[in-house]
Amino acid sequence: MSQADPTHAPPRVSVIVPFLDTPPPFLREAVESVWAQAYGDWELLLVNDGSGTETTRLAETLASEHPTRVRVLSHPGGRNRGVAASRTLGLEHSRGELIACLDSDDVWHPEKLEEQVRILDASPQVDMIFGRSLYWHSWNEDSVEADHVHPLGVPDRTEMGEGEFLLRFLRYQVIVPIPSSIMVRRDAVLRAGGFGDLRSIYEDQAFYAKLSFVGVVMACEEIWNRYRVHPRSSCQSSSRAQKRVARRGFLAWLDGELEQMDTGSPALRRTVRIEHGATAIPRGPQVIRLLRQLTN
User: Fold this and answer.
1) Looking at the DSSP assignment, which residues form a beta bridge with residue 19?
2) Phi and psi of 288, rounded to 5°?
3) pLDDT tens, 101-122?
4) pTM of the predicted model, to two decimals?
5) Model pLDDT, residue 74
6) Per-residue pLDDT averaged across 68-79, rounded?
7) What's the half-sphere exposure (Cβ side, CA atoms, 13 Å) at 170?
8) Which domains does the chain have, with CATH numbers?
């Protein structure tokens, strides 16, 4: 594990990239999209979540190309701890006041950091921002799916206070951001207790849930990243039934968190109960979503 150089001033932005046996071309392209940023005041933390030799060697090679700005971290014993725990490990070693997440198979647009830093500097009351993501099929020339972008769901620059972001995304009123699209203040992540330790395709939503109670979240129309759609990704490889089980587990976890924190409006608690009940029925969440659209 390489160490930060204490003689260098801390960067504004710490970029955290967990990886677990990511195909080497994907990891290289992700890292190179950080190097290509128009904004240059960053450090890159590559967090090895128990990868094998090939991907580990590539990460170390990439770090050696920028030894003062790129570090490779790993869990004790080289264990696999999951994406959330790996982001938290990166957080513990980060030096920047702003945290940007990048999944190891995604790619940033060159203006991503520059524009997000500018927005946060102009909005000191905001703790996290996110944009829309390009669902990227065309990386694969054989794909029959077209690239697409989901609607934001709310007006550009909407700010959401205590619990509001959570309530809105549970009700499908705002997109759930791809982690590669976010930038968040380090102190807000610390107030939220880190990125959590939930091992599920809902680990990102668990973090957003906790952060929504300690900070203000802003939704932006911009598209700052490409989300690579491929069969090996955890979400794409999960069946409909597996996703329903995972959502049920997340909602049960969330209900427990709200009880423990003694927080959440009646509307939020009611929404969690309704959504949790719907996961017990095949296509239940889709039915609830349709009913909300018809009654709004």
Assistant:
1) 48
2) -60, -40
3) 999 999 999 999 999 999 999 9
4) 0.91
5) 97
6) 96
7) 27
8) 13-237 (3.90.550.10), 238-296 (no CATH)
Residue with tokens 């990460």: 59
List the structure tokens of 94. 């980060």
- Tell me how many degrees the CA angle 75-207-19 measures, rounded to the nearest 5: 35
